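EI: anyone free to look at a 308-residue chain?
SC: sure, send it
EI:
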Amino acid sequence: MKPHWQGVFPAITTQMKKDGALDLDATARHAEALLDSGVSGIIFLGSLGENQAMTGDEKRRVIAAMIKAVNGRVPVLSGVAEASTTEAIRYVRDVEKLGADGVMLMPAMLYKGDPRETLTHFRTTAKATGLPIMIYNNPISYANDLTPAMFAELAAQKNFVALKESSGDTRRITDLRNTVGDRYAIFTGVDDLVLETSILGIDGWVAGSGIAFPQENQYLWELTRRGEWEKAREIYRWFTPLLHLDVSTKFVQYIKLAVQECGLGREWVRAPRLPLAGEERRRILKIIHDGSAKRPAKSFGKVSRFKH
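SC: here you go
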């Protein structure tokens, strides 16, 4: 039952047309570019994928189309960000029937539960499906904090196989290892902490900003696997201003703009989000263009999937 998830599992954007309609063909093209860089899995409909701005029917259409597009080359995961446990159960059962390889489960949206309620939501949803589950912990954005002690309580549920740690506290990696050992594959979900958390011993990276720079993103990850820390520091210093785009309330707009400027998609978002404008747009474009002008991929060329 337990998959061995590790490596880069990017959280991809859902590409849209200017009027906000889904653009499944463009999403599939972007996924192809990520596959070409050597990613180990792809997560659709995470926060970056604008999950909460879509109808249930749209989400199921996205997953069905992306399962077909990826065609078994890497695991396909869907974000689960429903507002109630009942809807989360319905959704995980549906994507299991569609052929998804797993899900990334968030706390129930719109409600800050206490630990008992949060644990019950996760356990109840997990018991409704045979799919492997990555638990998404992001107390900064979603108010519910799953502590290492809570992960220890969830360990008896066998299909919890991985966790995406996005608390922003690098001490959590060591605390998790000390509390739950290797029970879960630990992924970082904070782009501009990937080098720091790699040193502490993570298994994977749910990448955000790197979906606009997939070759460099994969290269940085591979350097950390090989322990080539000097080279990793060098590329990380170039990458960090771009990785900072992932830790803003407008991370969807920022990263979609980066994707557009790198020729991998368009910036269009679903309302209530709006495309960037004015000084903010100029500021973010400068970060993207400055980074693009100094892209390390120009010197190291296309990377290939790293075996380890």
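EI: DSSP finds 13 helices and eight strands in the chain.
SC: 👍
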